[in-house]
């Protein structure tokens, strides 16, 4: 009997083991067979189709629409108190957007009104579809110069402005298509091919290049080079000065108001209550300089002026889009490049301010919003719009609460297009150059480049490659250099992975995580960092930010943090 009981017991144990193994296999198979996460587009279509299958269940349809149009969600709880803050921010934003938009249109080799058009339609679309409360939408310096530097190699904007504009609008359309695709299919990783270091170098190089380009307007030079590299620009400036083909009055007027704008910026930084002063300084400069030229008729003495600016509502440009012909391929290529650069700039700005205010931003939905606004913009005489760092900072400082500040700004610009463009006839070109120059210092991150040099020499190589590529070759070559070095770096770390290291992009991500956690009252601690990692974190001054919360083991970290949790 005893042996029989033992046999039965062994059989039961064997069955239990087989059952456990079988359940383990089932669980493993279930984990491995997990379906791929749905894309934003498939989520929307699934929810929409389920609504129709269930005889249009209203609640599901509303949730689907709120996913694409966040205004339907937060708009229900919008209060008058928020509107007062948004009104102040929108008015302040408009005072900066009007002169900047006119100036950036000249960078894109377009007539001034196209910059104003781009500050009307895209912000209105973003107000309905965007979710960043602080991001200020409109034309920006980097994308404007990138567009003109690429397209003018295909068509001369002076010789054939109609074809040039058609390519600009078609490029904008393709840029919007690519941006929407990136968001719908969650392809935001394509932007990651440009590392943080490459972005710092590329942006700094473009800023200096824009500065050199503005010497034409600041000095009143009429004949200038079409090339964008710094050597060609300096040679053209020297030739004009040497042959007295410049206007000292233009230089004097432009420098005077440039100094005025920089002084107001200094005062605004010293006293945060005067945040509005540097924001309205460009508009004040435009008004005063226009009045001076009109009263003194200085345009007859060599002062170059804007002259006619076409007013009115945005005209349709649908008929100008080119979907056949010799330039379609170039427009698609330019659109892809511009889409990535515009997204890179907007996402970096919006994520930074979202972290500061402590809310989550869905990158895929932001990409879709950017894409739709540029597609619609291309049909209404707008070129590529994205988030502006300088205007977003002003919007934030002015106390914006929602994207309604973009709506108010767009309405003010539209009113200006309807009523006041005729008053800008005598606006000096040198003042527009001064407005652009005053916005450039924020694009040159010298401290960021220095930290990259201290932390990671390979990252610094990518930074300098992009920087010098832009300065001494072209914007496209600089961008290509940045992508090649960044991609080569990814391949190098893939072939020879160093799991015990961290680069500047990783440190940048840690800083963002630290800010996000701090905004929620959560302390960040580190346990068992390797020597290479802690050395680079010290060089980047990240260790100073988290204080004494660096521990040798996880156990020590838990013991040290328990009293804080109990308190």
Automatic annotation (TrEMBL):
Sorted UniProt keywords: Membrane, Transmembrane, Transmembrane helix
Places the protein is found: Membrane
Gene Ontology BP terms: transmembrane transport
A Pfam family it matches: Sulfate_transp
Domain of life: Eukaryota
Organism: Protea cynaroides
Protein name: STAS domain-containing protein
UniProt main location, coarse: membrane
GO cellular component: membrane
Transmembrane segments: 123-147, 167-187, 193-212, 249-268, 274-295, 367-386, 392-415, 422-444, 464-492
PROSITE patterns in the record: STAS (PS50801)
């Amino acid at each position: 009997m005893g042996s029989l009981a033992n046999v039965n017991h062994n059989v039961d144990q064997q069955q239990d083991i087989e059952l456990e193994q079988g359940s383990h296999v089932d669980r493993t198979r279930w984990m491995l067979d997990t379906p791929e996460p749905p894309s934003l587009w498939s989520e929307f279509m699934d929810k929409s189709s389920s609504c129709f299958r269930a005889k249009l269940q209203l609640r599901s349809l509303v949730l689907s629409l709120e996913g694409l149009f966040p205004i339907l969600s937060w708009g229900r709880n919008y209060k008058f108190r928020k509107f007062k803050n948004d009104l102040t921010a929108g008015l302040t934003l408009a005072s900066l957007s009007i002169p900047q938009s006119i100036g950036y249109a000249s960078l894109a080799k377009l007539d001034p009104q196209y910059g104003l058009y781009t500050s009307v339609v895209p912000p209105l679309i973003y107000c309905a579809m965007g979710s960043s409360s602080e991001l200020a939408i409109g034309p920006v310096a980097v994308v404007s110069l990138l567009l003109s530097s690429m397209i003018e190699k295909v068509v001369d904007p002076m010789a054939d402005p109609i074809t040039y504009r058609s390519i600009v609008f078609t490029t904008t359309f393709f840029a919007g298509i690519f941006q929407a695709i990136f968001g719908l299919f969650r392809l935001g990783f394509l932007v990651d091919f440009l590392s943080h270091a490459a972005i710092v170098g590329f942006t700094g190089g473009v800023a200096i290049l824009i500065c050199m380009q503005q010497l034409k307007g600041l000095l009143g030079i009429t004949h200038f080079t079409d090339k964008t590299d710094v050597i060609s620009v300096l040679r053209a400036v020297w030739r004009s000065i040497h042959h007295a083909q410049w206007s000292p009055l233009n230089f004097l007027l432009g420098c005077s108001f440039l100094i005025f704008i920089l002084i107001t910026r200094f005062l605004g930084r010293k006293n945060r209550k005067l945040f509005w002063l540097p924001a309205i300084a460009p508009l004040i400069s435009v008004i005063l300089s226009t009045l001076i030229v009109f009263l003194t008729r200085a345009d007859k003495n060599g002062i170059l002026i804007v002259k006619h600016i076409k007013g009115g509502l945005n005209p349709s440009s649908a008929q100008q889009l080119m979907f056949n012909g010799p330039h379609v391929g170039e427009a698609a290529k330019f659109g892809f490049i511009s889409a990535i650069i515009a997204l890179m700039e907007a996402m970096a700005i919006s994520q930074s301010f979202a972290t500061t205010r402590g809310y989550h931003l869905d990158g895929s939905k932001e990409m879709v919003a950017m894409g739709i606004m540029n597609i619609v913009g291309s049909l209404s005489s707008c070129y590529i719009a994205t988030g502006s760092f300088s205007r977003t900072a002003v919007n934030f400082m002015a106390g914006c609460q929602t994207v309604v500040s973009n709506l108010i700004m767009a309405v003010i610009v539209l009113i200006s297009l309807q009523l006041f463009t005729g008053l800008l006839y005598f606006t000096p070109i040198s003042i527009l150059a001064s407005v652009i120059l005053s916005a450039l210092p924020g694009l040159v991150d010298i401290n960021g480049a220095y930290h990259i040099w201290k932390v990671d020499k390979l990252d610094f190589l990518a930074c300098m490659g992009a920087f010098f590529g832009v300065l001494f070759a072209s914007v496209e070559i600089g961008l290509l250099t940045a992508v090649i070095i960044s991609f080569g770096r990814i391949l190098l770390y893939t072939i020879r992975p160093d799991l015990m290291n961290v680069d500047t992009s990783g440190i940048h991500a840690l800083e963002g995580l630290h800010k996000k956690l701090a905004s929620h009252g959560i302390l960040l601690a580190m346990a068992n960092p390797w020597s290479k990692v802690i050395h680079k974190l010290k060089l980047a001054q990240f260790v100073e930010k988290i204080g004494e919360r660096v521990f040798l083991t996880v156990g020590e970290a838990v013991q040290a943090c328990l009293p804080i949790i109990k308190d």
